[in-house]
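debug: dumping io for the single-chain case to check the tokenizer round-trip. Nothing else runs in this session.
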Amino acid sequence: IKPGVLSDLGEADDWPKLREKILAADIFILGLPIWMGQPSSVAKRVMERMDAFLSETDDSGRMPAAGKVALVAIVGNEDGAHHCHAECYQALNDVGFTVPANGGVYWVGEAMGDVNFVDLPGTPEKVVSMIKMAASNAAHLAGLFKTKNYAGVPAGE
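debug: decoded output
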């Protein structure tokens, strides 16, 4: 994904295909690792490219992500999941996504540890419980949007 804030940066830009898939879905899950207490650079690049949504409004002022639900899933070996969720929620909300209650799921191992999520023998029960709640709330909200999207505000009102 090339850096930038447009929806299409031309040749060799993989964002337009990914953007199309994101906007075709009712629920978007931004999954990312924590690196040094921050969202990964790839996650930041995805949010950077969504900046284009700000200028891609319809006749009612709605951005392309209006009526779409977003969840954020984080893994890492250090603290900072809540900080990363906050950064991602704000960016996703700024470009039109709606984050449901309990819309964040995370697992963080011991700081400076050597155990990664993929090395666990299974998904911890607390994480499973968080996933179920996030999925349930996201599906509920997406269902509501299927019946009635945000009204928006027509130009000039």
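debug: round-trip ok. The first strand starts at residue 27 and ends at 35.
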